[in-house]
């Protein structure tokens, strides 16, 4: 495959996405979502390589908001995706590409866009009709952001600091409420 036109640079936040080939599911049972996250967390996310800021895993696509920390992230991510695809194919007795082409890696240029893309990720299950409210979708980091059903897989502090001071318990609670209103504003603007 040719080199990526826009390289992935350490110290930059990216919104990574991809979709199943022919829009087919890339997780076919609840354990599939867990396998994907377990692999992502064990092979890529950590203090040295990257920080997972937000995520939403949909049946046929994913959204990952990642703060890239190391030069070899691209190879680590590529290896993880290949490994996941191979194990998916073996478990489901299939061959061929799991996802449609190369993943998308959109650079998050500023704080305003960081807020917007985190909201977009969390409303995706609602927008796509899987649930009525973001907190109902079990395969996203929304619970980590608002402090309900938190799984602790994502690090929401970077985004929540855009809503106030997260260094105190009271401040963190206020930021969570502000973020929840921010996400809810999307819904109200659509009605």
Secondary structure blueprint with pairings:
Layout: E1 13-19, H1 30-43, E2 50-58, E3 61-68, H2 73-91, E4 104-107, H3 111-127, H4 142-146, H5 157-160, H6 169-190
Helix pairs in contact: 1-2
Tell me what you see in this structure:
Helices cover 42% and strands 15% of the residues. β2 and β3 form a beta hairpin. The longest helix is centred in the last third of the chain and has 22 residues, at 169-190. Strands 2-3-1-4 form a 4-stranded antiparallel sheet. By secondary structure, it is of the alpha+beta class. It has one domain: 2-Layer Sandwich (Alpha-Beta Plaits). The mean pLDDT is 85. The termini are far apart.
Please sum up the structure shown.
The chain is 42% helix and 15% strand. By secondary structure, it is α+β, with helices and mostly antiparallel strands. It is globular, with a radius of gyration of 17 Å.
Provide key terms for this protein:
four-stranded antiparallel beta sheet, alpha+beta, Alpha-Beta Plaits, globular, 6 helices, 4 strands, 191 residues
CATH class reads Alpha Beta
- Can you write the helix and strand succession as a string? EHEEHEHHHH
Stated plainly, the CATH topology is called Alpha-Beta Plaits
In helices, the fraction of residues equals 40-55%
Task: Please give the CATH architecture.
Answer: 2-Layer Sandwich
- Briefly note the structural class of the backbone: alpha+beta
Point out poorly predicted stretches.
none
* Continuous helix count: 6
Strand content: 5-15%
CATH superfamily annotation: Transposase IS200-like
Number of DSSP-assigned strands: 4
Distance between the termini: 44 Å
